[in-house]
From TrEMBL:
This is Peptidase MA-like domain-containing protein. Pfam families: Peptidase_MA_2. It comes from Thermoanaerobacterium xylanolyticum (strain ATCC 49914 / DSM 7097 / LX-11). InterPro entries: Peptidase_MA-like_dom. The lineage of its organism: Bacteria, Bacillati, Bacillota, Clostridia, Thermoanaerobacterales. Residues 144-263 form the Peptidase MA-like domain.
Length: 271
């Protein structure tokens, strides 16, 4: 509790500094706020076992010990690829918690009961469902986990969040996470899905992402983000993340980096 009081004081000081230096309050206070959330999540798995590699810390229970090296190998295999693409390396090792009970994972990561995710990123921590829960028996666990698993996707969310300091629309972090899956593994998300009519507009992605059809919204986020990197290169994605981290809006950042209006660009990306 004492620690929390200190953190509250730090958040307050961050607010004051942000006001004084006229920078975004959100991007100043967010990294501190994130520490509180991270502590809370780590507290809820304090009885889990721990295995560390060069860049990751895996927390798991006995029943998942057989998957730990697969998880570490997959994460380490793609670590340098992701940080090179996004131009940023986390300063601490990244924590990956393996849950064999999806309800527990949803509770610790604030996901509503009944919702389901193979992986979640929140407050600087990655959680993944035990491979035992989603890889059907008889399949090649290593192959399926490396190709379809959540590690690259969630680690990308972690890096994006660190650079942009919480200041990004959901479609952009999902788009970058799906783009990294594509760039790292050639895994193209939602390839066979087709839009019923027109793809979602910029306005829908920006303001209503969570209430859209999830599959189609993710597909559109991927297409749009890939179109930005195809046309302007990963350098522009990197610059946009840095702009967001300094408190700029995504529209201003895109205009600054490309001279184009983001809504027009997005609405013209082929569906
Ligand atoms: Zn995601």
């Amino acid at each position: 509790m004492k620690k929390n009081k200190i953190i509250v004081a730090i958040v307050f000081i961050a607010f004051v500094l942000a006001l004084l230096f006229n920078e975004s309050i959100l991007t100043k206070a967010y990294p501190v706020y994130k520490v509180i959330g991270k502590d809370k999540i780590e507290e809820s798995v304090k009885n889990f076992k721990t295995k560390e590699s060069k860049h990751f810390i895996v927390r798991y229970q006995d029943s998942d010990s057989k998957y730990v090296s697969l998880i570490i190998d997959t994460a380490e295999k793609h670590y340098y690829g992701v940080i090179k693409d996004l131009g940023y390396a986390p300063k601490d090792k990244s924590v990956i918690i393996v849950y064999s009970n999806p309800d527990e994972m949803n509770k610790d990561f604030s996901l509503a009961k009944g919702e389901n995710a193979m992986g979640i990123y929140l407050n600087g921590v990655i959680s993944i469902e035990s491979p035992a829960l989603w890889i059907p028996s008889g399949q090649d666990v290593t192959k399926v986990f490396q190709y379809e698993g959540p590690v690259v996707h969630e680690f990308t969310h972690l890096v994006v969040d660190d650079i942009a300091k919480g200041n990004y629309p959901t479609w952009f972090t999902e788009g970058i996470a799906l783009l990294e899956e594509y760039r790292q593994d050639g895994y193209e998300w939602g390839k066979d899905l087709s839009y019923n009519g027109k793809p979602y507009t910029f306005d829908q992605l920006e303001n209503n992402f969570d209430s859209l059809d999830e599959m189609l919204a993710y597909k559109r986020a991927f297409q749009v983000t890939k179109a930005i990197s195809d046309k302007f290169g990963m350098e522009t994605i990197r610059e946009m993340l840095r702009d967001l981290g300094s408190g700029m809006s995504i529209e201003s950042s895109f205009y600054k980096e490309t001279g184009l209006k983001l809504d027009t660009f997005v609405n013209n990306v082929k569906g």
